[in-house]
Amino acid sequence: MKSNQITVEISDNRKEKPAFSSLQFGKTFTDHMFVMDYTEDQGWHHPRIVPYQPITLDPAATIFHYGQTVFEGLKAYLSENEEVFLFRPEENIKRLNRSCERLCIPQVDEEIALEALQKLVDIDREWIPNVEGMALYIRPFIISTEPNLDVTPSKSYTFMIILSPVGAFYKEGINPVKIAVEQEYVRAVRGGTGNAKTAGNYAGAMLAQKQSGKSGYSQVLWLDGKENKYIEEVGSMNVFFKINGEVVTPELSGSILEGITRKSVIELLKHWNVPVSERKISIDDIYDAYKNGQLEEAFGTGTAAVISPIGELFWKSEKLIINDGKTGELAKKIYDALTGIQTGKVEDPFGWRVTVQ
Amino acid sequence: MKSNQITVEISDNRKEKPAFSSLQFGKTFTDHMFVMDYTEDQGWHHPRIVPYQPITLDPAATIFHYGQTVFEGLKAYLSENEEVFLFRPEENIKRLNRSCERLCIPQVDEEIALEALQKLVDIDREWIPNVEGMALYIRPFIISTEPNLDVTPSKSYTFMIILSPVGAFYKEGINPVKIAVEQEYVRAVRGGTGNAKTAGNYAGAMLAQKQSGKSGYSQVLWLDGKENKYIEEVGSMNVFFKINGEVVTPELSGSILEGITRKSVIELLKHWNVPVSERKISIDDIYDAYKNGQLEEAFGTGTAAVISPIGELFWKSEKLIINDGKTGELAKKIYDALTGIQTGKVEDPFGWRVTVQ
Ligand SMILES: Cc1ncc(COP(=O)(O)O)c(C=O)c1O
Ligand SMILES: Cc1ncc(COP(=O)(O)O)c(C=O)c1O
């Protein structure tokens, strides 16, 4: 496998770059992509960087019917002096492989995947917006390609990486969002696929999202599928609460995604000697803390927004206004620290930053 | 919409038909397929039958990332005097539309979908095996096609129908299977997508299937996701038990698929005045009935096998042998009645059979 050299075919038909200021998330793609194939007899083979181009598949390919697929999401950042950084990319590749296991997809070689990531970002580095808060979103994904309507793991797969320049999540800096606690729909349950980054989890979440959107909420806060009372996560973010000086986040229950931002926030807080714990948190705990005046902050964590303060939580028929609907001090401090490390503005005592050369 | 005429382009490159005796499920496809597109401004449009051919999509198409997709499965049968029959196809189209609702996919016009089904089967009718027990499997499906990495319903979709001649599910007639009760993994939970026919449910089920397969079990029996005690369904089948003269099947809990075979079996039993009820059934109820000698039969129901008797149920460390591991009398009677109606061998008092002309 390691002898597999990544070949490169440079596009001779470069696209025009959009005005970075008007970028919408995930709608613009760069000039190249990475592709690698899997077959039973050859394993993963033929890693290559080629011009960004359509995929052609048999209509019976299992991806279209049984959704055997996994993906990842991370970003490349441009520093003030034009260096390109990735943030803990090895964690994404490890998580990709854990997702593969759950979905019966053959795992990829971590070294090849990391090399592919770096090489591709390097080739398309001029697509990284040189604007504060913007970045190049990186989407590795694997799809099952065998034409077969039998419900059984595919015998062939394609691993791809595509890149998309993305705007600042907050147009005017970090800003609180309103979140509705979901009472009808469930994202995942222990024993299901909730801790894997796989398509079905996201398709299933759209209806609740759409309905809460109609009432003016940007995302839903999912409760656990068994008892509908323990807090899980938000859309594409893990969630943290600051209650009476202590920071708490739901423990990894098997049904929530192990966010890399979540992990980094926990490590950062420990480094700062801020009390932080991972445990079961019921929505009633949050409500009680709110009523007692102890719910000091709430925020989501994820690659897209890094830190997303929660200014309002809608639960049953009540609006819990947190920290006067403003960004909390701690949320802001974490945001500055993480984005500082990501873009090379501050020291990185943890060794999280990887330079693309 | 109804003015939308289905156009037909006949393939001038017909494939050679395989030896029907050696067919594996879902690996051989016919000469044509149906395609229809959806865009926000035109709605569903351009319905057409074209030669079977690959699909070309942008690598950022949401189907590859967020799995917004639904599908159906039914069969066309050839009668002894070469008539072609479908079994309750309108039920499949209705279920497709219910699945669409859950997955935020725009529903299709039932009349166009039914016309498409019939027209396509008619054009490829010589692909229906003229062998007892064989049929033409029909797979309608919808995929989301917009290139967009934002987790939001796609703005464009493609609806397709492909056809696959399939062998007899039981090479030597109806035969009991061994099923393991799943204790670790969960297929679906109330509030999730279990009652929709969507890819993610099947991807998530593969790992449990694979593991039970290693121990010699052909499928797993899923328990509910909340309490891990109520019986849900089996792989691609609903499940029935005959206990002390009464036939019971799990009620539609919101997390199991509303099988069309299930519905037909219930209607058939009522027609025969056999006591049948839909209710919550715990695995302990089944175990108790077994211990008391009252568990007379168990069988799965689904389009693929029609009726699949369960000869052994593995639960914790015990093997429950049902009806001496043989096909039960009632299972056989239902099987004969349903396949008789499907293939035109017996009267159809229910009006379930639809002739393709
Ligand atoms: C469901 C879900 N939870 C949490 C996260 C946050 O994970 P990370 O911090 O690794 O981006 C994401 C996004 O990746 C996600 O999709
Ligand atoms: C999960 C699941 N349950 C049950 C069934 C049985 O449904 P039907 O009788 O409509 O084929 C199927 C197959 O279609 C299925 O996929």
TrEMBL record, chains A, B:
Enzyme's top EC category: transferase
Domain of life according to the entry: Bacteria
Cofactor dependence: pyridoxal 5'-phosphate
SUPFAM superfamilies assigned to the protein according to its UniProt record, in alphabetical order: D-aminoacid aminotransferase-like PLP-dependent enzymes
Signal peptide: none
Name of one Pfam family that matches: Aminotran_4
Reactions listed under catalytic activity: L-isoleucine + 2-oxoglutarate = (S)-3-methyl-2-oxopentanoate + L-glutamate; L-valine + 2-oxoglutarate = 3-methyl-2-oxobutanoate + L-glutamate; L-leucine + 2-oxoglutarate = 4-methyl-2-oxopentanoate + L-glutamate
GO MF annotations in UniProt: branched-chain-amino-acid transaminase activity
Pathways per UniProt: Amino-acid biosynthesis; L-isoleucine biosynthesis; L-isoleucine from 2-oxobutanoate: step 4/4; Amino-acid biosynthesis; L-valine biosynthesis; L-valine from pyruvate: step 4/4; Amino-acid biosynthesis; L-leucine biosynthesis; L-leucine from 3-methyl-2-oxobutanoate: step 4/4
The entry's keywords: Amino-acid biosynthesis, Aminotransferase, Branched-chain amino acid biosynthesis, Pyridoxal phosphate, Transferase
Annotated family: Belongs to the class-IV pyridoxal-phosphate-dependent aminotransferase family.
UniProt protein name: Branched-chain-amino-acid aminotransferase
Source organism (scientific name): Siminovitchia thermophila
